[in-house]
Design a protein that fits this description.
The protein folds into two domains: about 1-120, Aminotransferase class 4, branched-chain amino acid transferase, N-terminal domain (D-amino Acid Aminotransferase, Chain A, domain 1), CATH 3.30.470.10; about 130-280, Alpha-Beta Barrel (D-amino Acid Aminotransferase, Chain A, domain 2), CATH 3.20.10.10. Helix content is about 25%, strand content about 30%. It has helices spanning about 20-25, 45-55, 70-80, 145, 155-165, 210-220, 265-280, and strands at about 1-5, 10, 30-35, 40, 85-95, 110-120, 130-140, 170-175, 180, 185-190, 195, 225, 240-245, 250-255, 260. Strand 1 and strand 2 (about 10) form a beta hairpin. The relative contact order is 0.15. Acts on leucine, isoleucine and valine.
Length: about 280
């Protein structure tokens, strides 16, 4: 298995980072996880735009990031070792080596890694079990929470916590106790013909799949609510589902031990199929 690191393709066991790398020592870096289908990345330009946004927030020079066309070529090459139609692609950016201390070097020499591994999409109608994390809250003022930081400790701790309850993922609340998101996805609820999702001010990381669902809702003139919800209020929805740019949509069938309604086939199934089409047939590079 090969990876791409700092300008060249390398065998996995030959790729390494310096012991002074700030991404390793301090979590001083960011990443983006992407879905590739038959060698092409879905929403690539949008993913690269998010990487630029991550870089700007931590004052990382944008000109050190690979161009969109270069990333597309790298992924196409890495995909040759994937013997399936789908792959998960991750681009990780560390600020690179630095002296001891918090302040980064004025002229960073970053570590940039791109990997591709086989990925098996799941049926969106296979239910997901969530449990509310009591340890972790989203902070709308956190820089690390505003980007896909390489410091993922909050999400790791939340997932470890709820695994003990038999849940597959954690429901994470905002600082004031309202529903925010899961460790890896945004949340939606359905009531009749109305769609609900947490507002950005809850401290969520707004994903590309969330953006697409909201775009479809606007085009279809579906009413969308961003009203704050306590976790126990989720049981009032006809259906709850998650959305992320890797897995697409996943229906939630149980939260904190109670059963959630089954989504209306005509609404959820159509929406899930549209998202999957975007992740496969609708790819634009």
């Amino acid at each position: 298995m090969q990876v791409w690191m700092n300008g060249s393709f390398r065998d996995l066991d030959e790729a390494s980072i310096p012991v002074t790398d700030r991404g390793f020592l301090l979590g001083d870096g960011f990443f983006e996880t992407m879905r590739a289908h038959e060698g092409k990345i879905a929403w690539l330009e949008a993913h690269m735009g998010r990487l630029d946004h991550h870089a700007e927030l931590i004052e990382f020079p944008l000109d050190l990031l690979p161009e969109t066309e270069e990333v597309a070529e790298i992924v196409a090459k890495l995909f040759e070792q994937i013997h399936r139609k789908d792959a998960v692609v991750r681009m990780t950016v560390s600020r690179g080596p630095g002296e001891r201390g918090l302040l980064p070097p004025g002229s960073p020499d970053p570590t940039i890694l791109i990997t591709a591994e086989p990925f098996d999409p799941l049926d969106p109608n296979i239910g997901l079990t969530l449990a509310t994390s009591q340890k972790v809250r989203r902070n709308p003022h956190s820089v690390a929470g505003s980007i896909k930081s390489t410091n993922y400790m909050d999400n790791i701790a939340a997932k470890q916590e709820v695994q003990k309850y038999g849940a597959q993922d954690a429901l994470i609340l905002s600082a004031d106790g309202h529903v925010a998101e899961t460790t890896v996805a945004n949340l939606f609820g359905i009531t009749g013909e109305t769609l609900w999702t947490p507002d950005e001010d809850t401290g969520i990381l707004c994903g590309l799949a969330r953006d697409y669902v909201l775009q479809v809702a606007e085009e279809s003139e579906i009413e969308v609510s961003f009203e704050p919800k306590a976790p126990e209020e989720l049981k009032e929805f006809d259906a709850v589902f998650t959305a992320n740019a890797l897995q697409g949509l996943r229906v939630v069938d149980r939260i904190d031990g109670y059963v959630v309604g089954v989504p209306a086939k005509t609404f959820f199934t159509d929406l899930a199929l549209r998202v999957e089409a975007e992740l496969c047939d609708g790819i634009v590079i």
